[in-house]
Design goal:
The complex is a heterodimer of chains A (569) and B (460). Chain A has three domains: 185 residues, MetI-like (MetI-like fold); 31 residues, no CATH class; 219 residues, MetI-like (MetI-like fold), CATH 1.10.3720.10. Chain A is built from 20 helices and four strands. In chain A, a hairpin with a 2-residue loop joins strand 3 and strand 4. Chain B is built from 19 helices and 16 strands.
């Protein structure tokens, strides 16, 4: 979500077309899925025994892994089309913008019904639905990362690849993939933490009056909280944290250290990420042998194979008919999509009533209020702390690992405990839901503020000391302007996360009792559980529109101004 | 006749009426290259010389097939070029090395594309690294190397594919003086002693000395749009001595050709030709202003005044370590303000120029303010700001007008320069936050009748 920092601020006809296409697909799947009634409720039977925990952790991890592989494949296809096909770009990029602002959990009933209908009487359907849900939470920022990478490749590098007559495959292998690698690795990390966030919701859900449960860490935690077994809850949390920390140490650190060589800088950077594990891997004889005997011949083989099958892009005559064909196909598709959209939307809209619309608008308003409050709370504590950590390298060294681990714990995993503590109090869920939003989003802001504060040049700091600017003056003239662009970047990501979290935060099943607080998130959760699709569409649509409008009209102008006026380069 | 037909057979590159235009959506087309016809023969070292922004890099990219002309044909050995020419290799100003590949992998890249097998391409690349003085660096990454070493890799990578035509886009201009000099003579050695199988070299440059030092033929391009204004052979024997009188004479002559062209004949043919593409009436109104820094202008004029009011441009350039590219905008600015005149490659101060040199900063601002009133762009700005009730106008208003005459980036550059000059001369203010050009109280003179000849506004 942090990558969509382009300069577009207005609206385009493409947005309208894109919106229509989404509605069409949604309504199509809905009608198809609701007509297939042969699904079987899945009650996976979660056992709270400690012995089951590793197995559950593995199940959850596998689901995340498949979702990630799916995201990766999708990312390559989508980003390539968007980056290299001007026509496709006009549709795909606004589409991406809208897709990423639709809350993941709104997809749940649609996806679930579809898959259960596809695989009647089998656990596969529910599992696939869960994977697909996690996928929708992981994929968008990765697509943006690759797309941004592809379109920002320096002209010289591109031309040198062309003038050396590299084939399309070779260009991908030596230029495009390496260039986008750093962004891809970072965003993979973000995607995984996003995946953990929705794990609980993606493993245990109810639809109508049926409950679906999948064996996994998420449903283990939720079951434990539901039954009030706090020792199980805590051990589940510990396993979750262990998995996350292990992933971090065994996969992400080495990957980050490895991807450092793909940075475009031509000077040796001072702070290189290091990883002991990567060093071990690099020095291992076995791997060296493998790479010589397997990897090198494989690339050679691929070079030969793809060099032959992929035609050199010699943008000439024969393509004319193909583009003509594609163009008419796209046109036909858009017409059909528009028609279906109109039909589907009309059908669903016919169920809307004015009181409903008013309720949804009010609900959007109250969730907006919660989002704003949670952002304010986050800013209030993260700015001083972040500036402190960022300007004291010693503290930064000690605190960074701690904050990183704290940040990696998905807030949703803590939520049941939080609810249990607060539910008895007056306005308990209200507080808990805001707290959940804070928990889920504060880290984006904190890390950005730290980055901003540590990027303040030493000579500017010294000048501030020389002129005896202290306290508020120093903050106003140096610190706040310097961290401003970073703060905005953090806030953009955080607000996206907060909106998404509202669905989990405003509607909680606990001790076989449902607690709700008024907001668009609870409307979405409730309508999806009760199968009220017209209300679900209305609520989801308003939420998506609100998020897109806020992005375009507030965040992007703020960001553009910040990067123009306050950038320190 | 016989000779001509033989020449035709051996001709390496033939450009026939190559024209390049950039189409702007809803705007006028910008003509970059205008009807370039050029032949390059085996054995030639051709320097393409022209001021920056003259489209010489575009021309080079068209010759290598990286970009295609809007009109006209490119023939390689009498065959049309469609797409990147495998017989040509390119050396880039920015080196364009892949930071994630080792030196050896970078050099091998072109051979990988040619599907040579591993052993062969390794042998070939190592041989080349040896030849170009990079042995021992095979496993290094580009970021570990100095600029000069990096450009050596750039050369090795280009030469690895045994190109018949070696194209170089300002290959030495990102290097420091000594490194560049060293690399130049090494390349010349390789070329003159036929250690490389290259048949012809084509180098884009804006350094006149560099062109005279290296090439045996210099093709000079004009600016806006680029046309060939001279095609001279360089018959000096190698190795060339920069101090020799013949060398200096030739550099001086090329200076004259490059600097003398813009104002007189160039302008006429430009407008005459432009009519074919773009309506003349609107075109002629806004002459582009050169983007000279005013502080550099003061410095240059003071220096010339110390020399007795006249000096040779080539002298001045080499003394100030300025390429003709950096010097020209400043001299053009001096001419625009009637502070100096350029004739035959000499810069002579006018009376106003002498007055300017003797003035203090405030008086200088006054002189420039007076002069600016005759510049169409400033007349336009002045008029608009004085006529508006609130004496303020958004920047986009002027950008939009300028974009009808120039490309988007050129329009932006024109306005940036105009704002700088306007601020210096205290003609108007500019607030970057609101992006407004406005008049301060002391600049608003109700009796100030701007030049009555400026009918620009009415035409808009």
């Amino acid at each position: 979500m942090s990558n969509n920092v382009e300069n577009r601020t207005g609206f385009y006809y493409a947005d309208i077309l894109v919106g229509a296409v989404i509605i069409a697909i949604l309504s199509f799947v809905l009608t198809w899925a609701t007509h297939a009634h042969h699904y079987r409720p899945e009650t996976g039977g979660i056992s709270l025994g400690y012995a089951k925990l590793p197995l559950y952790a593995l199940y959850s991890w596998l689901r995340m892994f498949f979702a990630y592989i799916l995201s990766l494949l999708f990312t390559f296809v989508y980003a390539y089309l968007a980056a290299y096909n001007k026509r496709a770009e006009k549709i795909l990029i606004p589409l991406l913008d809208i897709l990423q602002s639709i809350p993941v959990l709104s997809f749940l009933p649609v996806v679930l019904l579809a898959f259960i209908a596809l695989f009647p009487g089998s656990r596969l359907g529910v599992n696939l639905a869960s994977v697909l849900l996690i996928f929708t939470g992981q994929v968008w920022n990765m697509v943006f990362a690759l797309y941004n990478g592809l379109i920002t490749i320096p002209r010289d590098l591109r031309e040198s690849a062309l003038s050396l007559n590299l084939s399309a495959w070779q260009r991908f292998r030596t230029l495009e993939l390496p260039y986008a690698m750093v962004g891809l690795v970072w965003n993979s990390m973000m995607s995984w933490s996003g995946g953990w966030f929705f794990l609980m919701a993606a493993e245990m859900f109810s639809l109508g009056n049926r409950n679906y449960q999948l064996q996994g860490l998420g449903s283990y935690l939720q079951t434990a909280a539901n039954q009030g077994q706090w020792d199980k809850e805590i051990s589940g949390l510990i396993v979750l944290i262990l998995v996350i920390v292990a992933m971090d140490q065994l996969i992400w650190r080495p990957l980050l250290a490895w991807s450092d060589k793909f940075k475009m800088e031509l000077v040796e950077g001072s702070a290189k990420p290091r990883s002991a594990i990567l060093m071990v891997l690099k020095r291992s004889v076995l791997l060296e042998c493998l790479s010589q005997k397997l990897f090198v011949p494989l690339t050679e083989w691929a070079d030969h194979l793809f060099g032959r099958t992929l035609p050199q892009i010699s943008h000439k005559h024969s393509v004319q008919t193909v583009t003509g064909l594609i163009r008419s196909l796209v046109l036909a598709f858009s017409l059909i999509a528009l028609f279906t959209a109109l039909q589907g939307a009309l059908h669903l809209i016919s169920h809307w009533t004015w009181p409903q619309v008013a309720t949804v608008l009010l609900a959007v308003g109250s969730t907006l209020l919660r989002v704003v409050i949670s952002l304010l709370i986050s800013v209030l504590w993260t700015v001083p702390v972040g500036v402190f950590i960022g300007s004291n390298p010693k503290w930064a060294q000690a605190l960074t690992p701690i904050t990183q681990i704290a940040a990696s714990v998905p807030a949703t995993a803590l939520f049941p405990g939080l609810v249990a503590l607060l539910i008895g109090l007056q306005g308990g869920l209200e507080t808990a839901s805001i707290l959940l939003m804070v928990l889920g989003t504060q880290w984006y802001i904190l890390f950005n503020v730290i980055a901003g504060a540590s990027a303040i040049p030493e000579d500017l700091r010294e000048a501030t000391v020389m002129f005896r600017l202290r306290g508020w003056h120093a903050w106003r003239t140096l610190i706040l302007p310097a961290i401003y662009p970073y703060l905005i970047t953090g806030l953009i990501t955080a607000s996206g996360g907060a909106w998404n979290a509202s669905i989990v935060a405003e509607y909680v099943s606990f001790h076989n009792h449902t607690y709700t607080t008024f907001g668009v998130g609870s409307l979405i959760a409730e309508s999806s559980q009760k199968g009220q699709f017209s209300l679900l569409l209305l609520a989801t649509g308003s939420l998506a529109v609100t998020v897109v409008v806020i992005n375009r009209l507030i965040w992007r102008p703020l960001y553009n101004r910040a990067s123009e006026r306050y950038s320190l380069s | 006749m016989v000779q001509a037909s033989r020449e035709e057979k051996t001709r390496l590159i033939r450009l026939l009426g190559v024209t390049k235009m950039y189409t702007q959506p809803d705007k006028y087309d910008i003509l970059v290259l205008d009807d370039i016809t050029l032949d390059i023969y085996p054995g030639e070292f051709v320097a393409l010389l022209g001021p920056s922004g003259s489209g010489k890099s575009t021309l080079l990219r068209i010759i290598t097939g990286l970009s295609s002309p809007s009109f006209g044909t490119v023939l390689y050995r009498d065959r049309p070029v469609n797409g990147p020419n495998p017989k040509a290799a390119m050396v880039f100003q920015s080196f364009a090395l892949y930071p994630w590949l080792t030196i050896l992998q970078n050099v091998e890249l072109g051979l990988v594309a040619k599907r040579e097998d591993i052993a062969k391409r390794r042998e070939k690349s190592l041989q080349l690294l040896d030849l170009i003085g990079l042995n021992g660096y095979e496993d290094a990454f580009p970021k570990e190397l100095s600029g000069g070493m990096r450009q050596r890799v750039g050369f090795a990578r280009a030469l690895a594919v045994d190109p018949e035509l070696l194209c170089m886009d300002e290959p030495f201009s990102a290097l420091d003086f000594l490194t560049a000099e060293n690399l130049r003579s090494e390349l010349l050695d390789l070329w003159l002693e036929s250690k490389i199988p290259t048949k012809a070299i084509l180098m884009v440059t804006h350094g006149i000395e560099e062109a005279v030092y290296m090439a045996d033929r210099i093709v000079i391009l004009s600016k806006n749009p680029a046309r060939i204004i001279a095609d001279l052979p360089v018959r000096l024997p190698y190795p060339r001595n920069r101090k020799s009188p013949e060398f200096i004479d030739l550099v001086d002559y090329v200076y004259k050709v490059v600097t003398g062209r813009d104002d007189d004949k160039g302008a006429e043919t430009e407008t005459a030709n432009a009519t074919q593409v773009i309506p003349t009436a609107e075109r002629t109104i806004l002459q582009p202003i050169p983007y000279g820094h005013l502080s550099m202008l003061s410095g240059l004029l003071e220096l010339v005044a110390d020399r007795g009011g006249q000096d040779d441009l080539y002298h001045l350039g080499s003394e100030l370590f300025l390429e003709v590219d950096d010097l020209l905008p400043v001299t053009e600015t001096a001419e625009l303000f009637h502070l100096a005149e350029v004739t035959e490659g000499d810069l002579t101060l006018t009376d106003l120029g002498r007055e300017f040199v003797d003035s203090d900063v405030t008086e200088r601002k006054g002189i420039i303010r007076e002069q600016l009133k005759d510049v169409p762009l400033f007349r336009l700005i002045d008029r608009v700001l004085h006529n508006k009730a609130n004496h303020a106008m958004p920047k986009e208003f002027f950008t939009d007008i300028l974009e009808e005459h120039f490309s988007v980036s050129e329009a932006e550059r024109q306005l940036v320069t105009a704002i700088n000059w306007g601020r210096f001369a205290d003609l108007f203010h500019y607030d970057p936050d609101t992006e407004l050009l406005y008049l301060a109280l002391d600049q608003q003179d109700p009796n100030d009748k701007a030049n009555p000849n400026a009918e620009l506004l009415q035409e808009k």
